[in-house]
Design a protein that fits this description.
The chain starts with about 25 loop residues before the first helix and ends in a 6-residue tail after the last strand. By secondary structure, it is an alpha/beta fold. The protein has 2 domains: about 5-50 and about 205-245, no CATH class; about 70-200 and about 245-280, 3-Layer(aba) Sandwich (Rossmann fold). The chain has 10 helices and 7 strands. Helix 6 links the parallel strand 2 (about 120-125) and strand 3 (about 145-150). It has helices at about 25-40, 50-60, 65-75, 75-90, 105-115, 125-140, 180-190, 205-230, 235-245, 245-255, and strands at about 95-100, 120-125, 145-150, 165-170, 190-200, 260-265, 270-280. About 45% of the residues lie in helices and about 20% in strands. The protein has a 7-stranded mixed beta sheet, with helices on both faces. The structure holds S-adenosylmethionine.
Length: about 280
């Protein structure tokens, strides 16, 4: 969807955080009605992504229920997407993967299971998400193979040419300075390394597209906010899907950062996309 088509305003900054669970269902139900009414008026508008400190605080707030949300809201479809995402990586034994915006380490854990001889460095700026990730990594006995670092994707705390592959799953659409992040991905990648990014996307088939829009406009905000005990996080996360660039535009951004042989893979009729690029071997 073109940003110009979008008509409803969303907060530039995080609205008042409300983590207490006072009448959450009433609040989210009324929000659901608001979304419903708004949809009847016409398409939506997100004027801009939140400042990164608000995004950071939002993820700290929802960290405790993030995995539960994925299981409940995405009906395990996201699990299938993550499995496919990891399968496409095709990592060699001894490879080092940089899992950026690592969150609760869902991709990291799947990658370690699929490729038993790799190591992973996960980076995220939300201490809340990293706390959950550490707990899961420890519980699965993966601590010797996984290092988790606090850091901003726009300025990675990682040396040049450290990784054989870099992944960002469901993370980059929350970041304003995508170009900066992609250039950082290029810097920390070894020549010949593979970049893989995954984000939700709207399918072309009209009925599926309509259903998916309904999900992002009504289902995800209503239940996501309720379960996480906030009054904005999942409304915001749902709206960011609308302002992510088109496939062509995003592949151009990946190329502009220096990556070659860019391509994309559509999952589940285009409900999610994997964007790929390689760092050329011959580059100085
Ligand atoms: C929706 S979660 C995705 C987590 C995980 N990759 C997954 O597949 O479930 C997005 C993550 O990106 C992180 N994030 C967003 N902007 C960031 C930034 N500028 N620097 C570092 N992490 C960021 C958030 O803290 C959050 O953990």
């Amino acid at each position: 969807m073109d940003a110009a088509e979008i008509s409803r305003e969303a907060p530039q900054q995080a609205p008042g955080e409300n983590t207490e669970r006072v009448a959450p269902l009433v609040r989210t139900l009324s929000r659901g009605i608001y979304f419903w009414r708004d949809e009847a008026r016409g398409p939506r508008r997100l004027r801009g992504l939140m400042a990164h400190q608000h995004v950071q605080r939002m993820f700290d707030t929802i960290a405790g229920t993030y995995d539960l949300q994925n299981r409940f809201l995405a009906a395990r479809v996201d699990n299938h997407w993550r499995n496919m995402f990891v399968r496409y990586l095709r990592l060699n034994p001894g490879a080092v993967l940089g899992d950026l915006a690592v969150g609760t380490a869902e991709i990291t854990i799947k990658a370690c299971r699929r490729y038993p001889e790799i190591r992973v460095v996960g980076v995220d700026f939300s201490e809340g998400m990293l706390r959950m990730a550490r707990r899961k990594i420890r519980a699965r006995g993966l601590s010797p193979r996984v290092e988790l670092r606090t850091g901003d994707l726009r300025e990675l705390p990682i040396a040049d040419e450290s990784f054989d592959a870099v992944t960002i799953s469901f993370g980059i659409r929350n970041i304003k300075e995508r170009g900066k992040v992609l250039r950082e991905c290029f810097r920390v990648m070894k020549p010949g390394g593979r970049l893989q990014i995954m984000e939700p996307s709207f399918p072309n088939a009209p009925i599926l597209k309509g259903l998916y829009r309904y999900y992002f406009d009504h289902v995800m905000p209503l239940f996501g906010n309720w379960i996480s005990g906030t009054d904005y996080a999942y409304s915001y996360l749902a709206e960011t899907v609308y302002v992510f660039p088109s496939d062509e535009e995003f592949l151009r951004e990946i190329s502009a950062a220096g990556f070659a042989r860019t391509s994309l893979v559509a999952l589940t009729f285009g409900m999610a996309k994997i964007y790929r690029g390689w760092k050329p071997k011959g580059r100085p």
